[in-house]
Amino acid sequence: xxxxxxxxIALFDVDGTLTYPRKAITPKMLEFMQDLRKVVTxxxxxxxxxxxxxxxxxxxxxxxxxxxxxxxxxxAYKNGELIGKQSLKSFLGEEKLKELINFTLHYIxxxxxxxxxxxxxxxxxxxxxxxxxxxxxxxxEREDFEKFDEVHKIRSKMVSILREKFKHLNLTxxxxxxxxxxxxxxxxxxTYCLQYLEDFPEIHFFGDKTYKGGNDFExxxxxxxxxxxxxxxxxxxxxxxSLFIATKPGDA
Length: 252
What we know:
The chain is built from 9 helices and 11 strands. By secondary structure, it is α/β, with parallel strands linked by helices. Helix 1 runs parallel beside helix 9 (233-244). Pathway: Nucleotide-sugar biosynthesis; GDP-alpha-D-mannose biosynthesis; alpha-D-mannose 1-phosphate from D-fructose 6-phosphate: step 2/2.
């Protein structure tokens, strides 16, 4: 490694890309990312707030990466400094927000699923995170719901109803992770963070939910990014090695 390649940034989703869902980054992956940072500029863009991203990537995350975009970039950091913040509450207004939250809670109350826990709607700075089972579920319950949802399409059906009901608000509904989906104004998907990266002629994005309807799709499909679909942190590291780091035969 002989210094950074100019004009290139590698931008990463969190869950399923740098970590396993809701798990902490492994020491090996953390070490790899720091090695990669010596070669190219690196950034993180996640749907979660900074607290949850820090739980997974470490409390020093805003200094470990050149750019950290929480809530799809609605809360943006560069070199450890806050450079931008947007608010869903001020954008929609209290009445429209209340209408959306009330309908969503009524829908979940009538939903027949095996278990329900607590925190069905998490209010974030730039979005609502909606979980039919509730974010207070255990890891085992989270994994069971994910399997149940794959069969019964609980989240996708709910998204279809909310999208039709609130089409006048021009909202985007994006399924991500194992138990929830995000709700935010159109254009506030992960492409929102790209406004801070205009100085980079080459933007590589790595994510696992790059299919249409997944929360990585818009930035993966963007004309200004080179999109890479990954299936695990190990896969992410391997793709980055082949793209950015010249390895000798036999290197791990």
